[in-house]
Amino acid sequence: MGRVAELAGVSVRTLHHYDEIGLVRPSTRTVAGYRAYSAGDVERLREVLAYRRLGFGLREVAELVGDPSTDAVAHLRRLRGLLLERRDRADAMVTAIDRELEARAKGLKVTPEEQLEMLGARLYDAIGGAYTATRRTEPRIAAQIWDALGDAQTVLNVGAGTGSYEPADCDVTAVEPSAVMRGQRPAGSAPCVAAAAESLPFEDHSFDVAMAVSTVHHWGDPIAGLREMRRVARRVVVLTFDTDEPGWQDRFWLTRDYLPEFADVLAEFPSLAGMVDAIGARAEPVPIPWDCADGLFEAYWRRPGAYLQDHVRRAMSVWTRVGPEAEQRAVRSLSDDLDSGRWAERNSDLADLDAADLGLRLLIA
To answer: Of 306, 231, 245, which Cα lies nearest the Cα of 273?
Structure first.
């Protein structure tokens, strides 16, 4: 244990604590009876220490390293994404600071917008490092999307992220502006182009279908991006969100009772009717299963305790957009209601539902 502590740069006391709480337990003993670490133990310790040094709490680390669906390679990709996120955000801040210093040296006025620019890059670069912890392909949603792709042979996936929902039986080209997200795409996944939806670097009708899954709300100009998809492909399939229905904020208990700021997040989001008109589409509802494998914002509608977990929230852009005060207030209120039983009483009608319509819509053009 002493040698492992020395190599890892931690105290023996830390390793004893990890052993006591079951986070990293040495699996062997020496002849003299001392605890010893196998190669597998060291690998797990490496993952634990890496997550700790990136700011994760012990409970979050235990959930991450204990995920049976995530192997050592997946952990390395996730850690790489987190480190790329920090590097990219630091680079963006340095560039913005240099630009402001140059402007001030010339006596130029620096606008409030330019001052705030130094705080970071794109939203996906802020949340992307945690994305693979919970965001996976949900087979039932995937089946609906792939059915809409029909007999397509060539598919463009716009705002592709880490590659969820890309069909394995098609020739896929991905487009993703975030370096953090591109860095987490699995080995062997579709080639990925660094570009934005509003300016796709392809000729007209280059693809059978252009698809976009849970990404339109991140685009600077959603309507322009949708029209670009229509330009480069013969057909378009988009998974997005409906804000046209009166009282849409009340469809989901989380936004109704705990996070009213969600409405402000989508205040400038195009109407469903506007998106439908932009590409000549029809819209069909996409029910969210109660045990949805994809940790999108509404995924845990029947598993409310998940929203108390930081790593779950970090993979949802909503929380970054509403800000830490609203997030902390919502989490505290939800935690209190779960402890008191108020949440269960207020949402008793959900207990027997297998799926819920919470506003996800598939646009098919």
So the answer is: 245
Supply the mean pLDDT for the chain. Answer: 85
Give the burial class of 104: count Cβ atoms within 10 A of its Cβ; 0-12 exposed, 13-18 middle, 19 or more buried: exposed
Is 149 within 8 Å of 211 (Cβ atoms)? yes
Is the distance from CB of 16 to CB of 45 less than 8 angstroms? Answer: no
Listed residue (319, 146, 154, 312) closest to 239, CA to CA: 146
Does residue 5 contact residue 35 with C-beta atoms inside 8 Å?
no
- The C-alpha atoms of residue 364 and residue 283 are separated, in whole angstroms, by 6
Nearest CA to 261 among 352, 332, 349, 325?
325
259 backbone φψ class: left, alpha, beta (φ>0; ψ -120 to 50)? beta
Residues 203-218: b if buried by 16+ CB within 10 A, e if exposed = eeebbbbbbbbbbbbb
Q: What is the pTM of this model?
A: 0.64
Which residue stretches of the chain have pLDDT < 70? 69-70, 81-82, 84-96, 99, 110-135
Place of tokens 């969820």: 164
Check if the beta carbon of residue 328 is closer than 8 Å to that of residue 240.
no
d(CA 76, CA 307): 25
The span from the CA of 140 to the CA of 286, in Å, is: 9
Report how far Cα 345 is from the mean position of its chain's Cα atoms. 30
All residues at 6 or more sequence positions from 75 whose CB lies less than 8 Å from its CB, including other chains? 47, 64, 65
> Contact 166/145 with Cβ under 8 angstroms?
no
Q: Could you identify the residue written with the tokens 């053009």?
A: 365
Q: Are 222 and 270 in contact (CB under 8 A)?
A: yes
Q: Are 248 and 299 in contact (CB under 8 A)?
A: no
Tell me how far apart the alpha carbons of residues 113 and 50 are, in angstroms, rounded to a whole number: 35
pLDDT digits (tens, 9 = 90+) for 240-280: 999 998 888 899 999 999 999 988 888 888 999 999 999 99
Which residues are 240's β-sheet partners?
361
**β-pairing, 192-193 with 171-175?**
parallel
Q: Which stretch of DSSP H or E encloses residue 47?
A: helix 39-53
Residues in the chain: 365
Question: What secondary structure letter does DSSP report for 109?
Answer: P
